[in-house]
Amino acid sequence: MTDKIDFHADDVVVRKSACYFCHQNCGVLAYVKDGKLIYAEGDPDHPTNAGGLCTRGNQAMTFVDNPSRINYPMKRAGKKGENKWERVSWDQALTEIAAKLNQIKEESGPEAVAAAAGTLRTDDWARRRVLNFVGTPNGFHNALLCWIPTFMIETAISGWSPFETDLGTSKCVVLWGMNPGASSMPGAHGYFDLQKANGMKLIVVDPRYTETAAHADLWLPLRPGSDAALSLAMLNVILNEFLYDFDFVENWCTDIDELRDHMEPYTPEWAAPLTWLDPEQIREAARMYATNRPGNMQWADTWDQLGRSASAGTQARAIMRAICGNLDVPGGDGMPGPAAYVTDEELERNDVLPDEVKSKQIGSDKYKLTTFPGYERLAEISRRKWGKAFTAEWMCEAHGPSVFKAIITGDPYQVRALFCSGTNPISSYGDSKMVWEALKKVEFMVVLEYFMTPTALMADYVLPVAGAMERPVVHTNYGVTDSIVASERAIDPLYERKSDYDIWRELGLACGQGKEAWPYDSLEEELFHVIEPLGMPVSSYDEFVEKYRMYYPPVRYKKHEARGQFCTNTGKVELNSTVFQEFGYPGMPTYLGAPENEVDDPEVAEEYPIVLTTGGGFMPFHHSEHFNNPIIRYIKPDPFFTINPELAEKLDIKDGDWCWIETRRGRMKQRANVEPAIDPRAIYTQRGWWFPERDWNDPDQPFGCLESNTNVITSVDDEHCDPLTGCWANRGLMCKVYKCTAIDHEFTHEDAQFSIPGSDFATKGAGVHSMPHEQKMAREFAEPIFAQPDTEVPEGFAWDYKTRRIYEESTGMTLDPSGWLIDEAGTYYQQGTHFKYVNYNGDFLLDEANGKYYDFSGNPSEGPQYAGAELPAGVTWNPVTLTTVHDKTGFRYDGDSGWVIDDATGTYYDVANGWKYENVNGVDYLHDVQGDAWYDMQYNAVAAPQN
Amino acid sequence: MTRYAMVMDTRRCIGCQSCTIACRTWNELPIDIIYNPVVSEGAEGTWPNVHMNFTPMICMHCAKPACVPACPTGASRQDDDGIVWVEPTQCMGCKVCANACPYGARDYTKSEGFMRKCTFCKDRVREGEQPYCVKTCHQKARIFGDLDDPNSEVSKLVGKFKTERIHEDLGTEPQVYYIRDLGGRG
Questions:
Q1: Which of A143, A168, A292, A459 has the fewest CB atoms within 10 Å, counting from its CB?
Q2: Is there a contact between A646 and B21 if contact means CB atoms under 8 Å apart?
Q3: Are A183 and A355 in contact (CB under 8 A)?
Q4: pLDDT tens, A756-767?
């Protein structure tokens, strides 16, 4: 390569750019000549990758100028899905899209517009801003499969999700369903180095034998999807063997005894048959984690893909971290809290979304923690305690699968328009056949994409998006951490591509949103506004990148000690969550089984005896991306599922055989990788597969998008979704496996038929059998969505569902069930008169306006009398402030000591003369300051003492 | 003197194949040519007592290469620093060298008509840079350096750990050293 290009020539500029192909955002040095990208390599000075790049990162060059990239705005010219396009100008595209949006908003309300997006490929706060100004609550991502349930549950319990791991001095790391060997490679070797250097214990919980499990001190190969049972049992052991941090629990946690009672049934013996583990293995894991402190439990998206058992397990894990004293300590789980710079939440402009549409957010009646009810409650607590809240994008979104169901059925209402930005929902959302039906059916669809995906094929407009090298990239962990790593644009977008910020901004302006919504002209200007509060001596975003590139605030541990509280509802770590209870959920971890399992559903297990796990990442692909890159695809051309040799032999399956994998929802095919890397009772399928090289013109499955797609067989049935968060089930489902035969080898029209989740495809066949609102939920709750008051709201009062109180509109004071009003300080006032309740030597009412007292019957009263011994001369009782005032000095007379005290300075004065008490050289004096005379304590005049 | 060599710390390798792809990017290889695959048998043993190893492959840049004397045209050659390479203008694509090489390190490209092989990125190395597969490795499983320099990392590693070389018995004196750890499980 160097034969052709001289990187060090004077006209070559090196730009500090970033990779965008996973969440690590590794640093990339981009070499630019005459505005063209000539070479990109790992940035040796970047904290994440130190010069390294993975398979995907090395494809930066082929991504920028890939011949199959979409380069111009396109409008559908033929029928939907016919792949006929007319190239249009940006002006025309955006004007027409805006007109259609405004029309739909006019006719059906703003909530008829929904928007799906891919994972961190996009400026999501900009999208949220457009949606907020349009007035729709129905933006969503695949957030529920990726961290967001964990974040919200842990934030409810501990005040902020403790996700920043501090490995340096850690004694024990738990990688639970996490395989950094495939998913976050820059960090993987760190664990293994620390194991050797510090003797750090590494516990790996994974049903598969992976790159990472190979290095573990203790590896727990559990039944896929039984993580909650293991988590609950480990908590049981820690509680029953008293392995937790007593001081921390005593000072900072609520309800430890209730929790111990509640967890009593969840013993290792209970969990053993559910998890396929030995009770002693579970005990060993609990002891290893609890006794090697400080320790970390790293997040992994396993937790968010378990379906209905997800939240109980996550809750138990959050409690384990806390009671073992690992929250926010060196070597433990750090809680960064919100940033000092302008956060994503502040950029989103959530203030403009009207309250009345929030209750229309799809899924908010079912999954309350990750939609408006839970978000607003937790954000309100966060704002009160931290000063800022976490992002609404990601943390407060419509339930994606329910939006697709709404498009098909019109239940709860018809969704008419759908935006898809950087996402291919057929591959990435559960129950692909149903998603595909929704994409075919939706009235109006706009896709922001890099390549022609099956989703883009169904669009009315396809808009070309700029990739990583063509736009600035900031890394802030979804906008919920306090640090920022920034990278600059290497080159201007090629052809007519635009960064999605520009697209959203211009669409917003075309919709008539104006300067108020979009005060900045470019992404760099807006990002400079973001970092401005940091006060760095820079005058532009690019200068910040060039000079500093990143900002990390000083690490502060044990913030709760300085603050005197955790940022939760009660100020403590809530082992029994008050917020969950408010929404009708159990406050303590309460087990629900995996969505389909051999214990709860023996009749399903009879037909589908094998346990399925999927959703785990594998190199070199990221989600459904890069399947169209020949260089990458060459090393993994076909989809493979992993099956143990013992099971393969039983089913007569040989290595490399194409096999059908079938669940109650349908079937898809992958090739067998016969390898003892998984339990003989389970299989693992690869995710994300589609075949960009195949024919687009297959009406059942363009680009082969269903044939080997593991999401064809995953479940989004309401009864399989987690009741708190709505995450659906990728792991622990039941399936059967059989070889493709000569007469049953093709994915047919019948295989592509959809059914509405909740109806059972295996028994009822294709079609819609029930409306979403009739479907059974994983758990019914006690309360309706936006909790209503117990009593009627009187005239002049209003109900605030966020704080769950009735308040007087004119004063903001809370109406107590006793009939009294309570202000913020906790003082009681009489309703109507607003007289303050005074309880001093009897009960009185005080009119604060004129200082007059009344009794409870409304008769004037002298007010409370001084309760102490008789007051000396020169001291007056003030019944309004309830103080005894010394006439001469105006300071407070203290009845207990008999002195007059200036509370501001702590100085004492005598009552009779108002002389100041002083102690000079160990001798007590009274000092008449005005007359400058000195007296001893018996009022004898003395000479002024010498210092 | 300089004697370039590579150490593969297989304890760190996770089989991500970043090196495989990175090499193709730097060397602009045709689609079907791979210089440095990462090979593995996958998990071995009986569940759950299994273990797994990855072996990153590359041209061994042998001290006594079998491929160089096999070449009838003199296109295959070895420099003083040990790097074995092919001069494309003299290569007629007869594949004799590929047959001679016990490591499968040479490939013929039909589209180009000559033999291709790993050059230890001599274009980079001679400018003081690391070979591209070494630079790109997140895990730092590939270590490159001068074996004649006792202070180089490769010298230290080869001195410190028990290393093995592939097909050492054939007498080719391969210059890629593998650090193995058969710990794992089972």
A1: A168
A2: no
A3: no
A4: 867 677 788 888
Neighbours of A774 (CB within 10 A): 11
pLDDT in tens, A730-783: 888 999 999 999 899 899 998 999 888 676 777 888 888 888 888 888 876 544
- Which pLDDT does position B127 carry in this prediction? 87
Integer angstrom CA distances of residue A887 from A97, A133, A851: 77, 62, 19
Taking a C-beta distance cutoff of 8 angstroms, is the pair A935, A941 a contact? yes
d(CA A351, CA A129): 10
- DSSP H helical segments within A480-547, as ranges? 500-510, 514-517, 523-531, 541-547
CB contact (8 A) between residue A42 and residue B135:
yes
The pLDDT tens digits of the residues spanning A881-904 come to 888 888 888 898 988 888 999 988
Residues A370 and A488 both lie in one domain: yes
Cα of first residue to Cα of last residue in chain B, in angstroms, is 43
Tokens of A886: 């010394």
Q: Which residues contact B159 (CB under 8 A, 6 or more apart)?
A: none
Do the beta carbons of residue B179 and residue B13 sit within 8 Å?
no
Taking an 8 Å cut-off on Cβ atoms, the answer to whether A211 and B17 are in contact is no
Omega within 30 of 0 (cis) for the link into A149:
no
Task: Count the Cβ atoms, other than its own, within 10 Å of residue A246.
Answer: 11
Count of pairs with CB atoms under 8 A, one residue in A, one in B: 129
What is the spatial distance between Cα B18 and Cα A211, in angstroms, rounded to a whole number? 15
In a domain, A810, yes or no: yes
Residue B181 makes CB contacts below 8 A (sequence gap 6+) with: B10, B11
Domain that holds residue A32: 12-64
From residue A178, give the alpha-carbon distance in Å to each of A165, A203, A577, B142.
14, 11, 27, 24
In a domain, B37, yes or no: yes
| C-alpha Rg value of chain A to the nearest Å | 33
Residue B56 zone, left/alpha/beta (φ > 0; ψ -120 to 50; rest): beta
CA distance B11 to B53: 8
User: Which residues touch A729 (CB under 8 Å, ≥6 apart)?
Assistant: A225, A305, A306, A307, A308, A430, A594, A595, A596, A714, A715, A716, A720, A721
A486 and A550 Cβ atoms separated by less than 8 Å = yes
B180 contact A CB<8A: no
Strand partners, A755: A767
Asked if the structure places residue B100 within a domain, the reply is no
CB A466 within 8 A of CB A788: no
Facing B139 at nearest CB: one of A188, A632, A679: A188
Q: What CA–CA distance (Å, rounded) separates A99 from A111?
A: 16
Domain hosting B131: range is 4-65+120-179
Residue ranges of chain B with per-residue pLDDT less than 70: 181-186
- Name every residue whose Cβ is closer than 8 Å to that of residue A649 and which is 6 or more positions away in sequence: none
Distance in Å, alpha carbon of B44 to nearest chain A alpha carbon: 6
For residues A313 and A150, the answer to whether their CB atoms sit within 8 Å is no
Cα–Cα distance measured from residue B18 to residue A57, given in angstroms and rounded to the nearest whole number:
9
- Last residue of some domain: A334, A363, A378? A334
Residue A758 tokens read as 């909740």
Residues 23-52 in B contacting A (C-alpha not used; CB under 8 Å): 24-28, 31-32, 34, 42-48, 50-52
Q: Which residues of chain B have a CB within 8 Å of the CB of A634? A: 31-32
- Comparing alpha-carbon positions, the chain B residue that sits nearest to A212 is B14
- Of all residues in chain A, the one with the smallest CA distance to B26 is A1
Same structural domain, A616 and A724: yes
Interface test mutation site (partner B, options A54, A217, A640, max chain B beta carbons within 10 A): A54
Prediction pTM value: 0.83
**In terms of Cα–Cα distance, which of A865, A876, A811 is closest to A838?**
A865
